[in-house]
Specification:
With 334 residues, the protein is α/β, with parallel strands linked by helices. 39% of the residues lie in helices and 15% in strands. Strands 1, 2, 3, 4, 5, 6, 7, 8, 9 and 12 form a 10-stranded parallel β-sheet that branches. Strands 10-11 form a two-stranded antiparallel sheet. Strand 3 (124-128), helix 5 and strand 4 form a beta-alpha-beta unit. Helix 2 packs across helix 9 (238-251) and helix 5 packs across helix 7 (168-180). The chain starts with 6 loop residues before the first helix and ends in a 23-residue tail after the last strand.
Length: 334
């Protein structure tokens, strides 16, 4: 029987003494995964800047003066060159991001060719292109796209403080379109934007409450970029980040929990705790879209020090039954 993870239950999890939370997360992790196995994914921005959305954390938004210029969609040959380099460096999944509110028909024609080309290299494929119409989701699925990334970012209650140009329901509708087209879901959020512990619990409750929950769950630490509204956000307690990873593992036991943006700033010690807490995927390479990431050589050295190993692309694992259309669930603090 599927557990119901309410914000109250998850907030209680996040409030446990860290050794107890880590122990629970380790038990769940070992029941479903090899604890030494970590998936490597590489991320490339195939269309940078000029996004009409006003996400407060994003340097690619046209609403913020961050010095990021708007580029056109990258040519297929250049994408494939980057994808081959990522594969040669050990990545098993190649993720591609385009700074759009939503793709147009002409964009889909181009990105489906990109998907087919990257798949032909033997890599898993993932894209994040903004909101998706059902017909666009079907075309991406037909082209062979394995995963679609569309993060919820935070709780429904805090969401309006971060983004005003699209609604929470818009995001859930895109996730439904992705599932209906037969693709797997990559969906997570960001920690350190000034949200409360209750908001963090609310985010995880939304994610765990999707049926099925996402196969990939990226947990991002805010990268404070000059010119964005969150450039002066308060420091994030790194142990709070570890707690989010552990709670994500417990509430979504068969998902790949990924250390994503902000990983470089966490340092080796906190990353090691995250792996103990159940993280088993990382973004690998020198750049995440337009912000820095841990260097490849540093990651290899850390894996060697911790006795971890990278995995090949994982077989498709369904985390539940076909998704019912999700709606926003608001929860009041008890």
């Amino acid at each position: 029987m599927t557990q119901t993870w309410t914000p109250d239950r998850i907030e209680a999890l996040l409030g446990l003494p860290l050794p107890e939370l880590m122990w629970q997360a380790q038990q769940v992790h070992r029941a479903h995964f090899d604890p030494l196995d970590v998936q490597l994914s590489s991320l490339l921005s195939i269309k940078t800047g000029g996004c009409p959305e006003d996400c407060s954390y994003c340097p690619q938004s046209s609403h913020h003066a961050t010095g990021v210029d708007a580029d056109k969609l990258m040519d297929l040959d250049l994408v494939l060159t980057n994808a081959q380099a990522a594969k040669d460096a050990g990545a098993g999944r190649f993720c591609m991001g385009a700074a759009w509110r939503e793709p147009k028909d002409r964009d889909i024609d181009k990105v489906t060719a990109i998907v087919a080309g990257v798949k032909a290299l033997g890599l898993e494929t993932c894209m994040t292109l903004g909101m998706l119409k059902p017909e666009h989701a079907r075309r991406l699925a037909d082209a062979g796209l394995d995963y679609y990334n569309h993060n919820l970012d935070t709780s429904p209650e805090f969401y309006g403080d971060i983004i005003t140009t699209r609604t929470y329901q818009d995001r859930l509708d895109t996730l439904y379109a992705v599932r209906a087209a037969g693709m797997q879901v990559c969906c997570g959020g960001i920690v350190g934007m000034g949200e409360s512990v209750r908001d963090r619990a609310g985010l995880l409750a939304q994610l765990a409450g999707l049926d099925p929950y996402p196969e990939s769950v990226p947990i991002n630490a805010l990268v404070r970029v000059g010119g964005t509204p969150l450039e002066h956000a308060p420091d994030l307690d790194p142990f709070d980040f570890v707690r989010m990873v552990a709670a994500a593992r417990i509430t979504m036991p068969r998902a790949r929990v990924r250390l994503s943006a902000g990983r470089r700033e966490l340092g080796d010690g906190i990353q090691a705790l995250c792996f103990l807490a159940g993280a088993n995927s990382i973004f690998y390479g020198d750049t995440l879209l337009v912000t820095g990431n841990a260097e490849v050589d540093a990651d290899r050295a850390l894996f060697a020090r911790l006795g971890l190993r990278s995995s090949a692309p994982s077989p498709r694992v369904e985390c539940g039954t076909p998704m019912a259309r999700p709606t926003v669930r608001l929860h009041q603090a008890s």
